[in-house]
Amino acid sequence: GKGGYDHYMLKEIESQPESLSNTIRGRIDPDEPAVHLEDFPRGCFEDVTEVHFVACGTSYHAALYGARLLEEANVSVRASRASEFSGRIPNPDGTLVVPVTQSGETADTLGALRAAREAGARTLAVTNVIGSTIAREADEVLYIRAGPEIGVAATKTFSSQVVTLVLLAERLREEVEGAIAREDRREFLEALSVLPDQIEEVIRTSRAEALSEKYDDRGAYFFIGHALQHPVALEGALKFKEITYEHAEGFASGELKHGPLALVTPGTPIFALFDGKHDEKTHTNAKEAQARGAEIVAVTSSERTASFADDVLAIPDTHPDLVGLLANVQLQFVSYYTARLLGRPIDKPRNLAKSVTVE
Ligand code: M6R
């Protein structure tokens, strides 16, 4: 049941400290420092030269996060929407195809998995559901261990997918030829191990409910971010439109001025995601929009970064590669409280299904 919560979505957002603890349990050792994925012993990725993610919706955003991490590690990587996957794999012997899917039953993702197998690539599914079709048909499976998710909006499974892909990326960068290992591995793994506590802190201190009341009824909502914050911006917008039925879009910070800025009018809320490392582009473009009347909500751990903004959603300090996970919880709350204010059927948005088994 909902365990005292009004909606499964809120229960699932607030269970992330627990679900993420399950995702990382036994898998990271900051002292060594090392990542251990029980089914993937040392050497098992030695033949991999290239990684190709296929996924839909929220899972695609998690895949983009994983892809960006690998890109920064100098690994050849792509992420395709499963429905757009061409089935072409130029180098099947070296390519690891990774379907990312909460349910393990999404028809588009299953189609992409089958096409990848047909092309002769090795396949490794990242999923939540043991025994699902995609778990059974992929060569190998890495479980995200988030526990059952009832709300149609994916929340705790997104964070567990991202963290699982972070772990997979760490393992891959050890073995893919030419990949760059982290210099700050210990700090990174330490940051990962305290992430569940920091999410707890966000849950305890979030001002998202009051903020949602202020920004109610604006007609359009934008979310911007650069680098690893870009997929989080896309995810923030998807969640928002899915459960509030309000128009919302996510953009790469630098793309605003290439078109979307024309949509900005006085009072348009823009949620700007900062990671403390790549903030220049987001800062410049958010200020540009602000000069056109947009109201900027900065999601950041830095008071200095936030000083120009109209509002702030504060997050604790963490490693730059993990900031998106904390920012995302704030955005989940913004969607939830806005939808609640608007009286939407939060756990079952119109026209949508939890698992989309048609192409
Ligand atoms: O089960 P999957 O992860 O394969 O589902 C993919 C999408 O249908 C899913 O993430 C969808 O976008 C969510 N309802 C978004 O909250």
UniProtKB/TrEMBL annotation:
GO molecular function, one term: glutamine-fructose-6-phosphate transaminase (isomerizing) activity
Signal peptide: none
Keywords: Aminotransferase, Cytoplasm, Glutamine amidotransferase, Repeat, Transferase
Subcellular location: Cytoplasm
Domain SIS: 37-178, 211-349
One of the record's GO cellular component terms: cytoplasm
EC assignment: 2.6.1.16
Catalytic-site annotation from UniProt: K354 (for fru-6p isomerization activity)
Reactions the enzyme catalyzes: D-fructose 6-phosphate + L-glutamine = D-glucosamine 6-phosphate + L-glutamate
Major place of residence: cytoplasm
Superkingdom assignment: Archaea
Biological process according to GO: carbohydrate metabolic process
EC category name: transferase
Summary of the function given for this chain in its UniProt record: Catalyzes the first step in hexosamine metabolism, converting fructose-6P into glucosamine-6P using glutamine as a nitrogen source.
Quaternary structure, from the entry: Homodimer.
Name the UniProt record assigns to this protein: Glutamine--fructose-6-phosphate aminotransferase [isomerizing]
Organism: Halalkalicoccus tibetensis
Section covered of the full-length record: 245 to 603 of 603
